[in-house]
Design goal:
Chain A: GO terms for molecular function: 4 iron, 4 sulfur cluster binding; electron-transferring-flavoprotein dehydrogenase activity; metal ion binding. The structure holds two protein chains of two kinds. By secondary structure, chain A is α+β, with helices and mostly antiparallel strands. Chain A has a domain of 249 residues: FAD/NAD(P)-binding domain, CATH 3.50.50. Chain A is built from 16 helices and 26 strands. The longest helix of chain A has 33 residues. Chain A is globular, with a radius of gyration of 25 Å. Chain B is α/β, with parallel strands linked by helices. Classes of the chains: A alpha+beta, B alpha/beta.
């Protein structure tokens, strides 16, 4: 049916195409004459190069099937799964039938979940009062809490008094991936339709502008953007309400912020990067239940960050350790990965790892904006939960409990609206404003409010130590009730100084025993992508990497990426400067890259994450 | 010839990209929390079955897997690729660890007879045990002809032309149906599993006892160990040095 039309329009189309080529490429040629380097084409994504103008896509069947559900949840992390489970629990309790579909980009639930993690079990126990009988993997209650300030050679212990945010009494050290996997099983048992391995790639809208649902990613696309023989369109999932639980800096959430202007009355989100390793250590160094946090070396006082080291109790002597670095760091020569490797050599950390074996590596982005950066959470047809809008309690470095609670509240609010008898909605997609009100009345809001000033207080002259003093006075004694709210110092990227104003950092070479190089770490993360697929990252403007990032900031993307995705060939030959984006990646890589790149964001640039066509992650 | 029915056997194995670790008690490898997926050769077998169905040569494709509850994920992937029905032969986790090709072949043979299939398709071997025995044993139990290491399968009337990859090159066989075929790497490139296909299909769960199959194994694993660490090589300057070194370590 399409073929004769195509033939007819083909000629006309080709004429148009030729004209458009002149229109699109002539200005590019003009810039080529004037610049000293050519602009290679890095990006192939259809949001930048639309398919209807691309000759290779002519005649390809772009029809999509659609399925109808009551609620569709994007993302099966702690927040998404909590919402799914709560919806089904309410449905069973009230004898109603609600179709809940959950899509998750990871091939297995929990595979892309990465966290320290020290869990505050309040929200979890609320969702699963019988968690112990059901065998939830909360195996390591915290028995010991330690905090220290590191200098290059020494460690100054700081007592953790009750009431300080770092106090972990009553909490559990968990492997969050395993916990999420267990939650996934509970969700399935309750009748949630869980679809791992299918990422939501597009938000669908009704004609009245409300959210209709999502569409999953297309599969079978070559690296240069052309369709393969195995090309297949994604599936559309329509719902009355769509819950977006994509996690830190989700790419669909980014579109929603723009479309519904959700960030009009909040500060821009600020981020941190968390790098983590899992080690099997010598038994004599193993202290199950111990929680260890440090600040200070190797970061200077103006770079926010700190480390964690948790001793798990799951049968073998396993420790989870890592470093969090705030992405508002000023020195473009800073490499969070290498800081992490360097930290492990500290005299107070190294003995624990000696004789041990590293078995896993990963990284993720975290929100550090807290209370001031929470956007509007609801819009016609959908709402945001979890780390996507960002409910992390920064000084406690815990966001899982608030994410779960937001999921629970979202489910309860949606359930009330779906089952209410006199439902009158102005839009086809339901607008569940009740969720935001309920969240504001819950302990999540109170908790985030009480710690709102701690992170911004680290921007003073004393840096992180100023923050600690502030915490001691205003949080510990006054419980966060001071009447003022400090602002963040703008977006992370605005804080990056040009390379010429900063000194390069000399990092020690990895020794292969305690510290390691980047490529072997990425290999250990188990990430594996099929080669012939488009890059997962899309640049809005392919000329920015060389013209701006390299020339002003000395290409910080090579240093901040914990997966080595960016590779600048200027290291080999300054004349032929170009940047390629490889498909390396880690757990949370997609979100990570995106948020980290926001350090370089401006109106003209940036990195969008496009969901990979078919994920073959670990 | 659209009356043919195909049984495809799939196995859930640790994903090929995962770094395997031996359990501390040396009884096996760590499987808890580790990513599993369908054996790559089984994917190729499913793809071949679905392609035959798309060519209208086959009426129904049944996917089957033996093992604990998680096998259903693997069967679902097969359904997502285009299989019509799924059968899960449920084996409790403790017994599933001792499941070997002989037991699975017994199950498949009984199922093939029960479902009255004309063709049994499997992957040539599983990437966890590399046994390369299940297809052959199944053919033996059923007393059916077999075409193993297939790199091309063509249906000609009631006969199956199978091109096999063997050590010397390629061998072409003509098999009379019903037959057993095991898939090798170059048979096809498997398609992506798409969501619409999974949503409507059901998986039937049966017990080995229902088929009258006894799953006892006469094999037991004594220990599993890491391969020895590779020691560094030694460089020598002249051939005389090489000969001397070889004599020194007792190799000549």
């Amino acid at each position: 049916m399409l073929v004769p039309l195509a033939k007819l329009s083909c000629l006309a189309y080709q004429c148009f195409h030729a004209l458009k080529i002149k229109k699109n490429y002539l200005p590019l040629c003009a810039t080529r004459w004037s610049s000293t380097s050519t602009v290679p084409r890095i990006t192939t994504h259809y949001t930048i190069y639309p398919r209807d103008k691309d000759k290779r896509w002519e005649g390809v069947n772009m029809e999509r099937f659609a399925e109808e559900a009551d609620v569709v949840i994007v993302g099966a992390g702690p927040a998404g799964l909590s919402a799914a489970v709560r919806l089904k629990q309410l449905a069973v309790a009230h004898e109603k039938d609600i179709r809940v579909c959950l899509v998750e980009k990871a091939a297995q639930i929990g595979a892309h979940t990465l966290s320290g993690a020290c869990l505050d079990p309040g929200a979890f126990k609320e969702l699963f009062p019988d968690w112990k009988e059901k065998g939830a993997p909360l195996n390591t209650p915290v028995t010991e809490d330690r905090f220290g300030i590191l200098t290059e050679k020494y460690r100054i212990p700081v007592p953790i008094l009750p009431g300080l945010p770092m106090n972990n009494h009553g909490n559990y050290i968990v492997r969050l991936g395993h916990l999420v996997s267990w939650m996934g099983e509970q969700a399935e048992a309750l009748g949630v339709e869980v679809y791992p391995g299918y990422a939501a790639a597009e938000v669908l809208f009704h004609d009245d502008g409300s959210v209709k649902g999502i569409a999953t990613n297309d599969v079978g696309i070559q690296k240069d953007g052309a369709p393969k023989a195995t090309f297949e369109r994604g599936l559309e999932l329509h719902a009355k309400v769509t819950i977006f639980a994509e996690g830190c800096h989700g790419h669909l959430a980014k579109q929603l912020y723009k479309k519904f202007d959700l960030r009009a009355n909040c500060e821009p989100q600020t981020y941190g990067i968390g790098l983590k390793e899992l080690w099997v250590i010598d038994e004599k160094n193993w202290k199950p239940g111990r929680v260890d946090h440090t600040v200070g070396w190797p970061l200077d006082r103006h770079t926010y960050g700190g480390s964690f080291l948790y001793h798990l109790n799951e049968g073998e002597p396993l420790v989870a350790l890592g470093l969090v670095v705030g992405l508002d760091y000023q020195n473009p020569y800073l490499s969070p990965f290498r800081e992490f490797q360097r930290w492990k050599h500290h005299p107070s950390i190294r003995p624990t790892l000696e004789g041990g074996k590293r078995i896993a590596y990963g990284a993720r982005a975290l929100n550090e904006g807290g209370f001031q950066s929470i956007p509007k959470l609801t819009f016609p047809g959908g709402l945001l939960i979890g780390c996507s809008p960002g409910f992390m309690n920064v000084p406690k470095i815990k966001g899982t409990h608030t994410a779960m609670k937001s999921g629970i509240l979202a489910a309860e609010s949606i359930f009330n609206q779906l089952t209410s008898e006199n439902l009158q909605s102005k839009t086809i997609g339901l607008h569940v404003t009740e969720y935001e009100d309920n969240l504001k009345n819950s302990w999540v809001w109170k908790e985030l409010y009480s710690v709102r000033n701690i992170r911004p207080s680290c921007h003073g002259v004393l840096g992180v130590y100023g923050g600690m003093i502030y915490t001691g006075i205003f949080y510990w004694i006054l419980r966060g009730m001071e009447p003022w709210t400090l602002k963040h110092k703008g977006s992370d990227f605005e804080r990056l100084k040009p390379a010429k104003d900063c000194t390069p950092i000399e990092y020690p070479k990895p020794d292969g025993q305690i510290s390691f190089d980047l490529l072997s770490s990425v290999a250990l993360s188990g990430t594996n992508h099929e080669h012939d697929q488009p890059a997962h990252l899309t640049l809005r403007d392919d000329s920015i990497p060389v013209n701006r990032n390299l020339s002003i900031y000395d290409g910080p993307e090579q240093r901040f990426c914990p997966a080595g995705v960016y590779w600048g060939s200027w290291n080999l030959s300054p004349v032929n400067e170009r940047m390629t984006v490889n498909k390396g990646g880690l757990r949370g890589c997609v979100e990570l890259k995106h948020s980290v790149s926001s350090t370089l964001d401006s109106e003209t640039t940036q990195l969008n994450t496009a969901v990979p066509p078919f994920i073959m992650y670990m | 010839m659209a009356e043919l029915r195909v049984l495809v056997a799939v196995k859930r194995v640790i994903d090929y990209a995962v770094k395997i670790r031996v359990k501390p008690d040396r009884t096996g490898v760590v499987t808890d929390g580790v990513k599993h997926s369908m054996n790559p050769f089984c994917e190729i077998a499913v793809e071949e079955a679905v392609r035959l169905k798309e060519k209208k040569l086959v009426k129904e494709v049944i996917a089957v897997s033996c093992g604990p509850a998680q096998c259903q994920e693997t069967i679902r992937t097969a359904l997502a690729m285009g299989a019509d029905r799924g059968i899960h032969v449920e084996v409790p986790p403790a017994e599933a660890e001792r499941l070997g090709p002989l037991q699975v072949a017994r199950v498949l043979a009984k199922l093939a007879e029960k479902e009255k299939v004309d063709l049994v398709l499997l992957g040539k071997q599983a990437i966890d045990d590399d046994c390369n025995q299940t297809g052959q044993m199944t053919a033996g139990f059923l007393d059916w002809p077999q075409g193993t290491f297939a790199s091309q399968v063509t249906l000609e009337g009631d006969k199956l032309k199978v091109e096999r990859e063997i050590d010397g090159g390629l061998e072409t066989l003509r098999l009379k149906l019903p037959a057993v075929v095991t898939a090798d790497l170059r048979l096809n490139e498997p398609r992506y599993a798409t969501l619409p296909n999974i949503m409507k299909k059901k998986i039937e769960v049966i017990k080995p006892g229902d088929l009258g199959v006894d799953l006892t194994s006469k094999l037991s694993v004594i220990s599993v160990e890491d391969p020895p660490q590779r020691t560094a090589g030694v460089k020598v300057e002249t051939t005389e040095d090489l000969v001397a070194k070889l004599k020194e370590i007792g190799r000549i």
